């Protein structure tokens, strides 16, 4: 990497640290309690150009690589995990456009990706782990495709305006198409009432005979699974970054408290039982950082990163939940109180044992790869 | 409008560490950032550009490491940046610094407005802006909490002083030193960050400027720091005279006679 590239990345990181400290961290608890972003917050993210971090310059974005993007998301998650996940959902979707989209499609949509969110949807009410069971259909009609179906639990669903949707063709082949909210037949459905990441909207879209031209197909017919898995891989690196950010937050709360609270005359941090917990959280945070950063480096270098990405999210999500539990125990009574953020950090981290592939699915993938080596 | 914003790089106090043995600042590896109030000055310049058009030029005197802060200012949206850098400029006090800055501003030419932060957070003198105004023989508005362009040639500034706000009108070109009350500096944007690395930072040394060697660097710096302390606040009474000149003089004479 050139010096300028490193410096630009550092400057981006500092900008996100500042933005997070001023705009997000102070309202982290409020976002959780509100179950939404307060009025105007998302617009600030847009106005400051954050949606365009990874978008190539030719489309009006800043063209940072995945290493810089993951670092930015990590810094943001330290202050608020919901907004970091909103960016994660957008960045991973843009990656699929760039990798699989036809020039006409990119020219039509990507210039707007600095202003509007793009989302990726596979899950249906029939299940998320086994997408072969989906019932969304794509029927060829002349040069166009007619898409009909119902997608649920989409990260940024409702907030996003452009959606990649996994569908089955008449001959049962999997394919991904792009639809947008302005198309006739497009409707938003219900927003999930999830227990964590409560700022991030997760919702449903209903597609009733939406007509899209052929170039709205990502990749080729039959490539749907591959694209869905690739989207998972890209998301998992960034979720690793979110999880490391959550653990940094958990660690800070535990460390700060252990310095200020005393057991009679002894500061908590001098107690071995407390030290054990602080060390566990710190180690898990560090490991997750190494995993997501390595995943981002491999992706940027064009090398296989699927297994590392799965490790980052599998290890990171379980660790962040357990680290939150340990931090809670350091604060004990106050940790159990909703006046302190730890309980919501645990709920936030818990989402990532499920979203973008469950831990069980990821571990199956990791084991399969290890066995095949 | 051609606006020059003079900025200084200062150590980021968030990352500054104290050496536990010597009790001194650990200067190596300390991240340099734009002086807090200078960010407000840049913001003020960007807002004026938005309103009146023109360009915002950043100017700084210091070693090459200051380039990172100039880039930071470019990433906020400034148009160009000039670094005044030379071994000969080293060891300058406020007088020698202001002299070199003034010569650079003359070289830039046709400058309408020169903005400074109200003071630097590391040295705290607040002198460089006023000295530049004297060097250039232009009016100055120090400690401004707001500025407003009247027309192309005039500006109204509000100076926020200890217990009062003073409204002053000046002709351009002028020097303004900006308080943090004036605005909320914008963030850099990711795109502007990238663009800031594509812009060339112009570097001028004594060879590019018409400077008198006796007035630069250590040689041109008469200041001797003997002691640093906070002066006691003198509890003097202020009487505000009426705005009508006649009435003001009458009352002043009365007060003096008492
Ligand atoms: C916060 C959040 C955001 C989300 N965002 C999106 C999004 O943007 N786009 C999207 O498409 N979906 C999204 N989802 C949905 C998510 O991808 C699914 O919830 C997930 O894939 C699991 O599917 P499911 O809930 O239907 O559980 P199921 O698939 O029914 O699984 C139930 C249980 O069985 C296990 N299981 C099922 N099949 C297997 C298998 N083959 N091997 C091993 N174990 C298995 C699972 O691990 C799990 O424990 C999101 C979910 C959450 C919580």
Give your account of this protein's structure.
The complex is a heterodimer of chains A (373) and B (258). In chain A, 52% of the residues lie in helices and 16% in strands. By secondary structure, chain A is an alpha+beta fold. Chain A folds into three domains: 3-112, Butyryl-Coa Dehydrogenase, subunit A, domain 1 (Orthogonal Bundle); 118-224, Butyryl-CoA Dehydrogenase, subunit A, domain 2 (Beta Barrel), CATH 2.40.110; 225-372, Butyryl-CoA Dehydrogenase, subunit A, domain 3, CATH 1.20.140.10. In chain A, the strands form two sheets. In chain A, strands 1, 2, 3, 4, 5, 6, 7 and 8 form an eight-stranded mixed beta sheet that branches. A two-stranded antiparallel ribbon of chain A has the order 9-10. In chain A, a hairpin with a 2-residue loop joins strand 2 and strand 3. Chain B has one domain: HUPs (Rossmann fold, 3-Layer(aba) Sandwich). Chain B has six helices and eleven strands. Chain B starts with a strand and ends with a helix. Chain A binds chain B through residues 4, 7-8, 11-12, 15, 18-19, 48-50, 52-53, 57, 60-64, and chain B through 68, 71-72, 75, 187-194, 196-197. The site of flavin-adenine dinucleotide (FAD) has 24 residues of chain A, from strand 1, strand 3 and helix 11.
Return the domain count of chain B. Answer: 1
The CATH class label of chain B is Alpha Beta
Q: Work out the helicity level of chain A.
A: 40-55%
The most extensive interface between chains reads: A-B, 19 and 14 residues
- Return the domain count of chain A: 3
Question: Helical proportion of chain B?
Answer: 25-40%
Parts with pLDDT < 50 across at least 5 consecutive residues of chain A: none
The oligomeric state is heterodimer
Which word captures the global form of chain B?
globular
